[in-house]
Amino acid sequence: MGNIHEYYQKLSEDILTYIKEKQYEKALEIIDMELEQPYIPQEHYVNLLNSKQDIENMMNESIYENEINGLSKLQIWDKIHNAKDNKIDLVYLNLFLSRFENELDDTDLSIMQKIFKDKKLPNTEKTILVSCLVDMNLDHDFEYYNPSLKKTYHFNPTKLSHSAGSKKSDDIFSKLEQHYLKDPSKLQIAASLLQVLIIETFPDEFNFEDTLTTDTIINVVDSLFNQTKIIDNEVSRILKPHIGYKDEA
To answer: Which of these, 35, 54, 68, 133, could form a disulfide with 138 (CB 3.0-4.6 Å)?
Structure first.
C-alpha cells in the first residue's frame, strides 16, 4: 500500500512540476498514459481526472490570454459579451477583470450597465458578470432587467453575497431533502432546479411561497421520470425552459 501511495505521490509531483513550467502537453501526456492503465485506485483516478480538467482549463486560458494581447478594452468586451450568441464568456471576463480590475472606468461601467439592461440576455448569463463583480466588491449602483420576471431592478455588488436565497431557499431545500430522503439522484435534480429559481429571480428577493415552490419542484422532477404533465404556475413557468418542456398546444 505504501508503495502505491509513493508512486502516485511521485506522479503528482512530476505533473505539478510540468504545470509550473507551463509544459501542459507533457503533463497531459503523463496523465493520459496513467489513465490507460488497467487498474487505478479510485481516489487517484479521480485526482487524475481533476488534474486533467484543470490543465485543460489552464491551456484554454493561456490561448485566450495570447489572443487578447494587443486588443483594446472595447475589443475584449466584444469577446466577453457575444451578442450574436447571447452569451457571456467567463474566461475572457476573468482575464479582463484580472488585468484591469484597478483600471475600470466609466466606459467599462457603461458596458456592464448595457449588459444588465439587455432584454434578450438571459439571467443565467447576466449573473456570471454579477458573481465576478461581487468577488471584486465593486461599489457601483446598476440598473438590472430580469427577462424571466420582465421587471427592472437596481442592485449594488457590495450589498450582495454568494448566499443568494439565504434562509428561504435553505428551508425549501430541507423540505426537498426530506421528500427525497431515499432518492439522492432526484434530490440532486431538485436542488439544481432550486438554484435555477434563485438565479432566474435575481436580483429580486426569492419570494415564492415555500410550499408552492417545493411542490412545484417535486412535480417537475416527477415529470422528468414519469412523463407526467407539469402544473402551470409562476414557478413552473420559470423552470420549464430549463428542462426543455413545452406545453401542449
So the answer is: 133
